[in-house]
Amino acid sequence: MYDIETRRHALRLLTTGRSLNSVSRETRISRSALRDWRDGGVLPNRRATEPLCTDGPAYPYLLGLYLGDGCLSAARRGVHVLRITCGNAWPGLADACEKAIRQVRPHGSVYRNPQRGCVQVTASSKRWPEVFPQHGPGKKHERKIALEPWQQDIVDAYPWEFVRGLVHSDGCRITNWTEKTVGGVRKRYEYPRYFFTNTSTDILGLYTATLDALGIPWTRARHARAYNISVARRESVALMDAHVGAKF
């Protein structure tokens, strides 16, 4: 058995990003015990009762990432693991995701689990279902997805962060082109636009409702089994560039 101060010290070492092996060698505590403390929480007076930080811009950004490419899965002792999948083509996205998780969940560690073509940014907490009440069985597009009133208040306060999270998960910024004959000369014209693609009509509705609140015109087009939401007007793209930006 280990006293609470020993556990606090070990947990502090883990939250600096050190590996289980490294902390185990220094403290002479087994890796299995360290893993249980890390994933299940050894300080119930802090980790089980302290709410996660949802009152700033990091939360609506993380909410957008979760609705697009995230999931919660149950682990042992009531712990839930948040997983956000980020493509390897945009290493800055994983950095932004990790930063948002650390701001929403100040205590605890964030891990990156490499997969083929992507990395899963993960973090464990007993309280994730409270801040992501959209969690449930089955795929998101097969069940109702709606924001709680308190979530809508946060999105209303930070609408661009919510849009940014959605676009960075299931959206993109591309350059379209067309050719026109002007004065007998064939000319090529290029213009940027933003796309957001999702199979959930509820998530699409959250995105378009937020764009409406921001005064951003959009159009909808059928694309395979999903829908594309396009933002193409020059002034709207300029606003999206200023507040959202392409994935990097």
Proportion of strand residues: 25-35%
Helix and strand content put the structural class at alpha+beta
For the residues shown, what is the average pLDDT? 87
Helix content: 40-55%
Number of helices: 10
For the largest sheet, list the strands in their spatial order: 1-2-4-3
Task: Determine the CATH superfamily of one domain.
Answer: Homing endonucleases
CATH topology of one domain, which one?
A: Endonuclease I-creI
Uncertain spans: 42-49
CATH classification class of one domain: Alpha Beta
Instruction: Please tell me what the overall shape is.
Output: elongated
CA-based gyration radius: 21 Å
Instruction: Let me know the largest β-sheet.
Output: 4 strands, antiparallel
Number of strands: 8
The CATH architecture of one domain would be: Roll
Topology as H/E string? HHHHEEHEEHHHEEHEEH
Q: Can you put this structure into words, describing what you see?
A:
The chain has 248 residues and is an alpha+beta fold. Among the domains are: 58-143, Roll (Endonuclease I-creI), CATH 3.10.28.10; 168-243, Endonuclease I-creI, CATH 3.10.28.10. Helix content is 42%, strand content 25%. It has 10 helices and 8 strands. The chain has helices at residues 4-15, 20-27, 31-40, 58-69, 91-104, 128-131, 149-157, 159-170, 201-214, 234-243; strands spanning 70-74, 80-87, 111-115, 118-125, 171-182, 185-198, 219-223, 226-231. The strands form 2 sheets. A 4-stranded antiparallel β-sheet has the order 1-2-4-3. The N and C termini lie far apart (47 Å). Residues 42-49 have low confidence and may be disordered.
